[in-house]
Design brief:
The complex is a heterodimer of chains A (about 350) and B (about 375). Chain A is α/β, with parallel strands linked by helices. Chain A has a single domain (about 10-350), classed as Metal-dependent hydrolases (TIM Barrel, Alpha-Beta Barrel), CATH 3.20.20. Chain A is about 40% helix and about 10% strand. By secondary structure, chain B is an alpha/beta fold. Chain B has a single domain (about 15-365), classed as TIM Barrel (Alpha-Beta Barrel). Classes of the chains: A alpha/beta (about 350), B alpha/beta (about 375).
Chain lengths: ~350, ~375
């Protein structure tokens, strides 16, 4: 593999909450007391079972079998290893799975403060997404407002499968706040498990669950488009994180066609979905789900009809590639530069130079 | 927009329409609900008149999402004598079979077919009636048409029994399921269906739609019909994933699956994704002995309508190359509003052999009508 150019921006790394005890110092008294009194368990989502091969690359696991539990590991294994200039932390602790809105808000605050103190304060190359209690838009907006004061928070993080589709108007205050603060909405693989993880019922195997994430992304992207989120918030950027990439062209061919036939139902969508996506939606690279042959990959990249869509990611510590082979073969130098640096900079306003120096102590 | 396709001048029809056409998705209807009574036991007629039809959605009449057109049909498809589009064989002959030179048409009854009823006993009885109706009123009167065995798929053994009843009857060309089942179609409760289909030598068609009860997005119920329509592609991706990973194709190597009306261009990316993550998570599925893409390449067919329409039209040909020109079955979806016309469906000129495969030979081979 060729060395990554300097300043590569890794848009999806996952700090692991080592345990609930790590969050306790960042919790209000009531919620800290409740952890002890109720015996609250670890909120690790079944989207990434701890022992599953995909959850962490073997060479990135510690002696306890877990990975990315502290900043030193991430620094050595991801930042230094790949020569990364900036990496965006997307913490996947199961806050979004909780049924109590207030409890979710308390845990979101704890996670965000833990990220700021234990990760961002300790490593200047790190940025983070704001974990929000998506269960209640008002509380989510409060958390965005609280964290947005710190310019190292560069994005709002949602899971792809929640209680209601992401385009629904109940979520719009979150999008308004994100747009106001120059924060893209990052939608990550995962579910709050309010519904079966496929539209035809609960699968049997984890393999199905993970493969099925791509279908959830297709449907949530359709929801955001059809409900008019992109028309209502023209400054909003949406980044699909760990979504897979190769499904996008066929999805857009179908949705464009149905839009031509059914646009009377959604008159606020006044241009083809594919155009909206090219202007306002981005996708992280890993897992690429690439075809087996390089010439097929070239065709697939052509089918995307834009070299601005893809953002570099390692998905560290998830096991998506071996060794240093984070980029697929056959990318032109020009496209690699766009994916690694230019596209992330264009997507995340808070990664620009002025923001990088402002307020980071 | 609605167009009276019969009023187009005949001279405008390009050569494609003079090819023999096989149509993998035709929807026959009944003029009025009681037209099924000659085939339905009196007990169930009374039941229908007392309790109506109950699916896993909230409306007594019509679908969960109002369609884009009345009954989702072409406005020019209402027969001269009235009734639902698709209810009149003579008009269907004129508007579809003769007009487009359809020499083989597969009937996929939907309205209603007995599939997806909440009451399993009623579903069993109604499916049987619809199968008898297809033979009596359609295939016995029109040799170009072949029926599908509709089955009460939520009850695997009962569905298998219905397939066994029809096995060897040349009026039937496939077994028909709907895509939105109570559980993903790889689940073992459905395996008796696959076993019986293989025993009968019939492909299993899975048509988009249905009433399984799960939200059509795994993130909840969308607001719009366009999302439901688009979502049928994801439902088929999910059910195919389930069938591959659960080992249906491994267990039944002679099973042939036809995915109907859910698009096709999504298939290669799904196969790539399946292979990648299957290999990473290999330890979970030791019952699989081949790559997911290999099962798919050997055992899966897709009908074409509604054909995806990329802006750069040649890109669709890339997708077809990746799937295989021998795996697509042309379909019109007559009499539905998003009908594909064989004269206009392919984005670019293609070689004659491929056109013949796409428009007829693949279907003839799959459905055992070749030569």
């Amino acid at each position: 593999m060729t060395a990554l150019p300097p300043g590569a921006i890794d848009c999806d790394v996952h700090p692991t909450v080592p345990g609930l005890s790590a969050l306790l110092p960042h919790m209000e008294d009531h919620w800290r007391d409740m952890v002890a009194q109720r015996g609250v368990h670890e909120l690790h989502s079944i989207s990434y079972p701890d022992p599953s091969p995909l959850t962490a690359r073997p060479d990135w696991r510690g002696s306890d079998g877990r990975a990315a539990t502290d900043v030193e590991k991430l620094r050595a294994q991801a930042l230094d290893r790949f020569g990364t200039g900036v990496a965006i932390c997307n913490c996947l602790y199961g806050v979004q799975l909780l049924y109590s809105e207030d409890m979710a808000a308390a845990y979101a605050r704890a996670v965000n403060d833990w990220i700021a103190r234990e990760w961002l304060d300790r490593e200047p190359r790190l940025r983070a997404s704001i974990v929000v209690p998506v269960q209640n838009a008002e509380l989510a907006v409060q958390e965005i407002e609280r964290c947005a004061a710190d310019p190292r928070f560069v994005q709002v993080l949602l899971l792809v499968m929640g209680e209601i589709p992401l385009g629904r108007r109940q979520h719009w205050p979150i999008y308004a706040a994100a747009e106001r603060h120059g924060l893209p909405i990052g939608i990550h693989a995962g579910s709050s498990y309010r519904h079966p993880t496929t539209p035809v019922g609960w699968p049997t195997y984890y393999t199905e669950d993970y493969v099925g994430q791509a279908q959830a992304f297709q449907q949530q992207l359709a929801s955001l488009i059809c409900e008019g989120v992109f028309a209502k918030f023209p400054g909003l950027r949406v980044v699909l994180l760990e979504s897979g990439v190769s499904w996008l062209p066929a999805f857009l061919w179908r949705l464009d066609k149905y839009w031509r036939g059914l646009r009377m139902e959604i008159p606020w969508v006044n241009r083809p979905p594919s155009e909206i996506v090219r202007d306002q939606v981005r996708l992280t690279l890993q897992p690429l789900d690439a075809p087996p042959k390089p010439e097929q990959l070239q065709r697939l990249l052509e089918h995307l009809e834009s070299d601005r869509l893809l953002l570099f990611s390692t998905d560290y510590p998830h096991w998506q590639f071996d060794g240093p082979d984070v980029l697929p073969d056959g990318l032109s130098a020009d496209l690699a530069q766009k994916i690694l640096v230019d596209n992330p900079l264009a997507t995340y306003p808070r990664l620009s130079e002025s923001s990088l120096t402002k307020g980071v102590s | 927009m609605n167009v009276d396709v019969l009023s187009r001048p005949a001279a405008s029809r390009p050569a494609a329409s003079r090819l023999a056409i096989a149509d993998g998705d035709i929807h026959p209807a009944r003029k009025k609900p009681s037209d099924i009574y000659p085939y339905l036991e009196k007990r169930w007629q009374t039941h229908l008149e007392t309790f109506g039809l109950r699916f896993r959605h909230g409306f007594q009449y019509g679908p969960a999402y109002p369609k884009g057109q009345p009954l989702a049909c072409r406005r020019d498809a209402t027969p001269p004598g009235g009734g639902k589009p698709g209810c009149d064989l003579d008009f269907l002959r004129a508007q579809l079979l003769d007009a487009h030179n359809v020499q083989l048409g597969i009937l996929n009854p939907l309205s209603p077919s007995g599939q997806g009823f909440q009451d399993t006993e009623f579903s069993i009885a109604f499916c049987r009636a619809v199968n008898d109706w297809q033979v009596a009123e359609w295939t016995s009167r029109e040799p170009r048409l072949k029926a599908s065995v509709v089955v009460p798929y939520e009850d695997g053994p009962a569905a298998a029994a219905e397939i066994d009843r029809r096995a060897g009857d040349k009026n039937f060309a496939q077994v028909l399921l709907l895509s939105r089942t109570a559980e993903p179609l790889g689940n073992r409760r459905y395996w008796p269906i696959y076993e019986a289909a293989v025993r009968a030598g019939l492909p299993v068609g899975v048509h988009a739609f249905g009433y399984g009860g799960s939200a059509i997005s795994a993130g909840g119920w969308p607001s719009f019909y366009i999302e439901e329509m688009n979502g049928h592609a994801q439902c088929s991706q999910a059910l195919l994933t389930s069938m591959v990973i659960e080992g249906v194709f491994e267990r039944f190597p002679d099973l042939r699956l036809v995915l109907i009306e859910s698009g096709f261009a999504w298939l290669p990316p799904l196969a790539w994704r399946l292979d990648k993550h299957f290999l990473r998570l290999r330890a979970e599925t030791p019952h699989l002995r081949r790559l997911p893409s290999e099962y798919i390449r050997d055992q899966v067919w897709l009908t074409t309508q509604p054909v995806e329409e990329p802006t750069t039209r040649s890109q669709l040909l890339d997708s077809i190359e990746w799937i295989g020109w021998d795996r697509l079955i042309f379909a019109t979806d007559y009499p539905h509003w998003d009908f594909d016309d064989p004269a206009h469906v392919l984005p670019l000129p293609i070689p004659e052999a491929r056109r013949r495969a796409f428009f007829f030979d693949n279907a003839a081979a799959l459905y055992g009508m070749a030569g």
